[in-house]
From TrEMBL:
SUPFAM superfamilies in alphabetical order: HIT-like
Protein name: CWF19-like protein 1
Residues making up the signal peptide according to the UniProt record: none
Native organism: Melanocharis versteri (Fan-tailed berrypecker)
Domain of life assignment: Eukaryota
Record domain Cwf19-like C-terminal: where: 310-418
InterPro entries recorded: Cwf19-like, Cwf19-like_C_dom-1, Cwf19-like_C_dom-2, HIT-like_sf
A Pfam family per the record: CwfJ_C_1
Biased composition, class Basic and acidic residues, residue ranges: 296-306
Biased composition (Polar residues): 307-318
GO terms under cellular component: post-mRNA release spliceosomal complex
Gene that this sequence comes from: Cwf19l1
Length: 531
């Protein structure tokens, strides 16, 4: 059960009050999806109460990014981030996959009218990359939900009356192209201060193509509008991946032709050109010992590999990934060591200056998904970090949250040996979990996470440098900063103000200096420099 709403324009009390009223009457909903302008010109006063934690959204709320220059400052991370408790900015473009299998594609901003595209706009390249990420998926049928702020151009073709809105002039051609390609079952948009529920349309040519599911386009008005136009839409949806194929492609009686038929016919004639600055989708190593960074493809030839390995290949991300090493989104000034399959990077907004991440170079979502070669190198990095931190009078705590993340991040935080014992750390995690009604169980000795969690299972786990592990299977909501909160608490590092990484982020020159210092100290323990 989901809710979608139009332009909030900073009226947080109005929208969340309405959500509470609906839930009191009709029962709980799983999430609120917000399209259009979430923030307005006078948002700051209301927003401050949510940003500081004085107030909390009643259900998990997912929002699109800025549509104008004035509200850009509310979105600190282009790749998406938690803005406040229960309020998440999805990001510039990509796909959100829920643990139920529900796929939500999203595109933030309005169509760019100039080049280069402003930060609050999307370009043809953004749309092409989002399409490519999904259409290259084996057996792709479509997405469950598409979220955009602008309407798609020509959505009123073959449709019921749109009222005063001229769909041949309003909206975005690029959004039409995206909708035609991604075939969403529901497409939500806003910005026009109007409510419009279009008749469902086909995603196949009758008698020429195999029947496919229909799309329902719904435009929502601005929240709290005086004209009483509908701005909140409740709906239930079963993920496409869980549906019976025959049930999925049932055609309702009022179904119309596809409004983007012209686009579909033109699509095979034109292929998106490759941009000159785009790098091929292969893995790279970065030689950090040279003054100038050089790249070389990971073909294995210089590693002495004479036999090809039958390895589990990393998947392709469904949108821009902040942690795939070949991705332009990676903040490479934080990278401190690169192996064959994994790399180390300082954590942005770390709990301490030597808080590091172990990350796979290719795209893997969790430890459970790793191939044996990658897992072996993860183990080598753990051993090297244990030896390194022990030489500095510290022990490490490692944790992973496989929930609302798309690339594996093993967080490794050192704790002074004289501050607490391993047993103290374990008890702190168990006690805080109990307080928050989280069942944190100890994994038997000589067992690992892959033996208790299947691929795709949301989970949280903690590992001490003694090898002891605690595991929680996530079945509902889970506090995103739980691991940091425990370690930052008074019983351990006693720095509760650092529980939220956004409060700890440093300027880029300071981060780069910390990375250089860590690299120098870690060098005697770094096996990647010797292999």
């Amino acid at each position: 059960r989901r809710l979608a709403c139009g332009d909030v324009e900073g009226r947080l009390e109005v929208i969340f009050g309405r959500v509470r009223a609906i839930q009191a009457k009709s029962g709980r909903f799983d999430m609120l999806l917000c399209v259009g302008n979430f923030f307005g010109s006078a948002s700051e006063a209301e927003w401050a109460e949510y940003r500081t934690g004085a107030k909390k959204a009643p259900i998990p709320t997912y929002v699109l990014g800025a549509n104008n220059q004035d509200t850009l400052s509310y979105f600190p991370d282009v790749s998406g981030c938690e803005l406040a408790e229960n309020i998440t900015y999805l990001g510039r473009r990509g796909v959100y996959s829920g643990c139920s299998g529900l796929q939500i594609a999203y595109l933030s901003g309005t169509e760019a009218q100039e080049q280069p595209a402003p930060a609050h706009s999307f370009s043809a390249k953004d749309v092409a990359e989002l399409k490519m990420a999904l259409l290259s998926t084996p057996n792709f049928k479509g997405v469950d939900i598409l979220l955009t702020s602008p309407w798609p151009r020509d959505v009123g073709t073959f449709a019921n009356s749109v009222g005063e809105i001229d769909t041949k002039k309003c909206g975005s051609k690029l959004v039409s192209d995206l909708a035609a390609s991604l075939k969403p079952r529901y497409h939500f948009a806003a910005l026009e201060k109007a409510y419009y529920e279009r008749l469902p349309y086909r995603n196949h040519m009758v008698l020429q193509e195999t029947p496919q599911h229909v799309t329902r386009f719904i435009a929502l008005a601005d929240v709290g509008n005086t004209s009483k136009k509908k701005y909140l839409y409740a709906f239930s949806i079963v993920p496409m991946s869980s549906m019976d194929p025959a049930e999925l492609v049932k055609q309702p009686q009022d179904v119309t032709e596809n409004p983007y038929l012209k686009l579909r016919k033109e699509a095979p004639k034109s292929k998106a050109p490759l941009c000159a600055e785009e790098e091929p989708a292969c893995q790279f190593f970065f030689d950090l010992n040279k003054h100038q960074v050089k790249k070389r493809p990971s073909d294995g030839k210089d590693r002495g590999d004479s036999q090809p390995k039958q390895a589990k290949k990393p998947s392709q991300p469904t949108g821009p990934c902040w942690f795939c090493l070949a991705s332009p989104e990676v903040e490479k000034h934080l990278v401190v060591s690169i192996g064959t399959h994994c790399y180390l990077a300082l954590a942005k907004g770390g709990l301490s200056p030597d808080h590091v991440l172990i990350l796979p170079i290719g795209h893997y979502q969790s430890v459970v998904d790793l191939s044996s070669e990658v897992l072996e190198e993860v183990t080598k990095y753990k051993a090297a970090l244990k030896e390194f931190f022990r030489s500095k009078g510290k022990r490490y705590v490692l944790f992973e949250r496989n929930y609302r993340s798309q690339h594996l991040q093993l967080q490794v935080i050192p704790v002074p040996l004289d501050l607490c014992t391993s047993e103290d750390i374990k008890e702190a995690f168990i006690a805080q979990a109990r307080e928050q009604q989280i069942e944190l169980l100890e994994i038997p000795e000589h067992s690992d996470v892959a033996q208790v969690a299947q691929p795709g299972t949301p989970y949280f786990y903690v590992e001490l440098d003694t090898g002891e592990k605690l595991f929680h299977r996530i079945r509902g909501r889970f506090p995103l900063q739980f691991g940091r909160e425990v370690l930052a608490s008074e019983v351990l590092l006693a720095q509760p103000q650092r529980a939220d990484w956004r409060q700890c982020a440093a300027q880029r020159p300071e981060e780069a200096a910390q990375a250089r210092a860590f690299r120098r100290e870690f060098e005697p323990f770094d096996f990647s420099l010797r292999d």
